[in-house]
Amino acid sequence: MNKMRDLKISKLTMNIGVGEPGDKLEKAFELLKTVTGANPVKTKSNKRIPKFNVRPGIELGVKVTLRKNFEELLKRLLLAKEYNLKDSSFDDYGNISFGIDEYVHVPGLKYDPKIPMFGFNVTLTLSRAGYRIKDRRLNTAKIPRRHIINKEEAIDFMKNKYGVKIV
C-alpha cells in the first residue's frame, strides 16, 4: 500500500457558541479549558445582525484547536456519542463534525454547579501526507483531485480506526 494514501487526523477543533459576551462566555471558556487542557480563544462576530443585537467585534464564542495528543479526548468524545455518527456528519473533503448535547455526557467530566449545561461542536480534519503544499509559504500549490479525501474514505477511516458505526 502507498504511504502517501494513508489518512491521519491533522487537528481536532472544539467550539461553543454562546451568543453573548459576559459571564456565560467566561464559563464556556473555563469549560473548554478543563475538557481539553489547552488554552481556548474567544471568537468574534464578523457580521451585524440587529435582530440579535450583534455587531462586528463582539465576542460570542470560544474555540480550541488541538493538533497533538488528542487521541484520548477523541475516544471519550466518541464514547459520549456511543460510537455512532450520522452520515451527514461527514463532508466531501474529509472533515467530520458532530455535536455533544451536554458536557456531562463526556466520560470523566462531572457536573459543576458553577457551569451551566453547555453543549459543544467537535470537528475533525483529516489529511494525507503531502497536504502541506497548500499551506506552505513558498511555492504554494493545489492538492490534486485524486489526492483529496472524499466522504467514503473518511467513513472507512473512522470505521476501521475507531470502530464507529454510521447511523
Domains, number: 1
> Can you tell me the CATH class?
Alpha Beta
The global form is globular
Which strand-content bin applies to the residues? 25-35%
Give the topology string: H per helix, E per strand. Answer: EHEEHEEEHE
Lateral arrangement of strands in the main beta sheet: 2-3-1-6-5
Largest sheet: 5 strands, antiparallel
Classify the fold: give the CATH topology: 50s Ribosomal Protein L5, Chain: A
Strand elements, count: 7
> From the 3D coordinates, which CATH architecture would you assign?
2-Layer Sandwich
Q: State the helix count.
A: 3
The amount of helix comes to: 10-25%
Head-to-tail CA distance between termini = 29 Å
The gyration radius over C-alpha positions equals 18 Å
User: Helix/strand/pairing class, anyone?
Assistant: alpha+beta
Task: Provide a concise account of the structure shown.
With 167 residues, the protein is an alpha+beta fold. It has helices at 23-36, 71-80, 151-162; strands at 7-17, 41-44, 59-66, 84-85, 95-100, 120-128, 165-166.
Describe the 3D structure.
With 167 residues, the chain is α+β, with helices and mostly antiparallel strands. The protein has a single domain, classed as 50s Ribosomal Protein L5, Chain: A (2-Layer Sandwich). Helix content is 22%, strand content 25%. The protein has helices spanning 23-36, 71-80, 151-162, and strands at 7-17, 41-44, 59-66, 84-85, 95-100, 120-128, 165-166. Strands 2-3-1-6-5 form a 5-stranded antiparallel β-sheet. The two termini are 29 Å apart.
